[in-house]
């Protein structure tokens, strides 16, 4: 198996994991807001569960369509960039050569070495080199839009199960607090995981996710309380 194939497989796998983590995170956050908001308006466990179920169903479809559209658009943009560079190399090869050379030189490489490196890279793969240097991606690394949509659609309702079960299984006096604690723990996990996969600051992303969860649950609960009264 080639290194190029390994890289493509890794990119596709990471994309599926990213979509699943984000789907689960949104499922937890969205449905917890719904069920806690409804719990502020009524103590009827069946009504709360149905509201959460409807939110989970709608959210799963919405997330899947969003992922499909987003990833498909990204892939289309990459394909378009490839065609643009193919045309550019046929009509203005010297301009593309200078662009790549200047990028290397801007990194502190001597002009002579930058010219040599560009000549060798362009001779080996002119299209791949110019696409990478101009647009920042490697050729033929498109990820699966359908795979991302399916991962998100499955993960969203799985994430939503936690707040739905907590709000319906715990006693009335304890269920809002119990659900809030369970949701915050889950959000800490998904926030950390999403940051780890994307290379972002894990601590900051985890705190941000938890704060968003607290804000969502507090606001929706008090709105529900006002409506219920």
TrEMBL record:
Entry coiled-coil feature ranges: none
Q: Note whether Transferase occurs among the keywords.
A: no
Q: Which UniProt keywords apply?
A: Membrane, Transmembrane, Transmembrane helix
Q: Which GO terms describe its cellular component?
A: endomembrane system
**Pfam families with a match to the protein in the record:** VIT1
Topology class, membrane: Multi-pass membrane protein
Compartments annotated for it: namely: Endomembrane system
Per the record, the GO terms for biological process are: intracellular manganese ion homeostasis
- For whether the record's keyword set contains Transmembrane helix, the answer is yes
What is the species of this protein? Weissella confusa (Lactobacillus confusus)
GO MF, any single term = manganese ion transmembrane transporter activity
Task: Spell out the protein name for this chain.
Answer: VIT family protein
């Amino acid at each position: 198996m080639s290194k190029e194939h390994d890289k493509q497989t890794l990119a596709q796998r990471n994309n599926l994991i990213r979509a699943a983590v984000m789907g689960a995170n949104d499922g937890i956050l969205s449905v917890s807001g719904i069920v806690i908001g409804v719990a502020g308006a009524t103590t009827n466990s069946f009504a709360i569960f149905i509201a959460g179920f409807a939110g989970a169903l709608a959210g799963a479809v919405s997330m899947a369509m969003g992922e499909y559209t987003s990833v498909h658009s990204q892939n289309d943009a990459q394909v378009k960039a490839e065609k643009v560079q193919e045309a550019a190399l046929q009509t203005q090869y010297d301009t593309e050569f200078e662009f790549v050379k200047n990028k290397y030189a801007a990194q502190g490489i001597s002009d002579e070495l930058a010219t040599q490196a560009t000549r060798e890279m362009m001779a080996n793969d002119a299209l791949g080199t110019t696409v990478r240097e101009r647009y920042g991606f490697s050729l033929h690394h498109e990820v699966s839009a359908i795979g991302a949509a399916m991962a998100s659609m499955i993960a969203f309702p799985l994430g939503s199960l936690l707040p739905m079960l907590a709000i319906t299984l715990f006693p009335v006096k304890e269920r809002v607090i119990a659900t809030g604690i369970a949701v915050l723990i889950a959000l800490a996990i998904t926030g950390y995981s999403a940051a780890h996969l994307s290379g972002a600051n894990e601590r900051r992303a985890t705190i941000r996710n938890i704060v968003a969860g607290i804000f969502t649950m507090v606001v929706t609960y008090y709105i529900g309380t006002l409506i219920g009264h």
